[in-house]
C-alpha cells in the first residue's frame, strides 16, 4: 500500500489534464502519446458565420503551434495563407455552452484534417512534431520576499504552477513536478536545488525517468522584481539562462517557449525531406509469443519516423526487421528511447559500421 500511494502521488505530479489522463499512473515517467493535437476549442460570442470563421483561423494557428512546437513557423508565408484559409482544413465542428459561471459562455470545438495540414506544413518546409512527446521534469525553487525557500511540488499553490499547467495543456507538452516526499527532500534539499547543482539534480531525477529536466530558481524581491536562473538538462547537454521580469506570466512563458522549441527541433521532422532509401536493420530479442510479434510490428507501424517494417529473419525468441525510415536512423533511435518498449542491447545510435541495431522487447 505505501508504494501504491507513492505512485499515485507521483501520478498527480504530472501537470496535465485530458491530454494525458489515460497514462497518469504509468510511472516512472515515459513519453506520452498526446491526444487532441489537431483539435482546438475557442470561445465565441455567437454561432454566426463571422465568429465561426474567426474561430477557425484562431484555432488553426493554435494547432500549428502545437504540432510544430515553435511560433516562428506561424510567420512562414505558406502557413499564413493556410491560416487565412482555415475553413479548408476543418473536418468537424461542435458547440457547447458553459453555464457554470455567472455569465454563460459558448465554445466552438474544431477538429482539423491532420493529413491535409501535415502535407501543407511539410511542403512548406516545416517539420511536424509527432504525438509521442518527451516528459519534462520541473524542479522549481522559489525564494519569497521573506527569504524562505521552497521546492514546488504538484500540491503547492504557487501561481506559477497554473501558468505551467495551462502551457502544458495548450502546447501539448507533458510536464511533471517532483512529489517532494522524504526521498526528494533528502536527495535535493531546497538549498541544493537553489544552487542548481547539475550532478545532484540529475541524481534526484533518476526515480522519475523523465526525458528532460528543467530546473529553475525564482527570487521574488520585496519590490516585486522576479529574478531567475534556469538550467535545462537534455541528453548530455546543459543550457543555462537567466531571466528578469516583473510579470510572472512573461517570466514563466519565456522559458517554457524556449524549452519547447528546443525539444521540437530535436524530435520534429519533415518526411518529405527524408534521406533517400533510409533503412535500418533491427534485431529484437524477447519475442516469447506470437502476440509479441504482432505487438512489435504494430508498435513499429505506430512510430511516425517509420515508413514500413518487415520481418527479415526469425531466430527462436528473436526477430530481425528491415525498417524503412522517413527520417534519419539517429532520430529512429530517439523515438525508440522515448517509447521504452524496446531497450538497447548495444550502444545507442546507428552508424555505418554498426548496421544492426540490437534491442530487447520489454513490454
Structural notes for this entry:
- This protein has 363 residues and is an alpha+beta fold.
- The protein has three domains: 2-34 and 131-267, Rossmann fold (3-Layer(aba) Sandwich); 39-123, no CATH class; 274-361, Alpha-Beta Plaits.
- It has helices at residues 2-12, 49-68, 77-84, 114-123, 159-171, 182-187, 190-194, 198-205, 248-267, 290-302, 329-339; strands spanning 32-33, 39-44, 90-98, 105-112, 132-133, 136-143, 149-151, 175-176, 212-220, 226-234, 237-245, 279-285, 306-315, 318-325, 342-344, 356-361.
- Strands 6, 7, 8, 9, 10 and 11 form a six-stranded mixed β-sheet that branches.
- A hairpin with a 2-residue loop joins strand 10 (226-234) and strand 11.
- Helix 2 packs antiparallel against helix 3 (77-84).
- The chain is globular, with a radius of gyration of 22 Å.
- Residues 1-13 and 15-27 have low confidence and may be disordered.
Rough outline: globular
The secondary-structure class comes to alpha+beta
| The CATH top-level class label of the largest domain | Alpha Beta
Summed up, the helix count is: 11
Q: Residue share in helices?
A: 25-40%
Order of helices and strands: HEEHHEEHEEEHEHHHEEEHEHEEHEE
Percent strand equals 25-35%
Q: Alpha-carbon distance between the termini?
A: 24 Å
Largest sheet: 6 strands, mixed
Write the layout of secondary structure elements.
Blueprint: H1 2-12, E1 32-33, E2 39-44, H2 49-68, H3 77-84, E3 90-98, E4 105-112, H4 114-123, E5 132-133, E6 136-143, E7 149-151, H5 159-171, E8 175-176, H6 182-187, H7 190-194, H8 198-205, E9 212-220, E10 226-234, E11 237-245, H9 248-267, E12 279-285, H10 290-302, E13 306-315, E14 318-325, H11 329-339, E15 342-344, E16 356-361
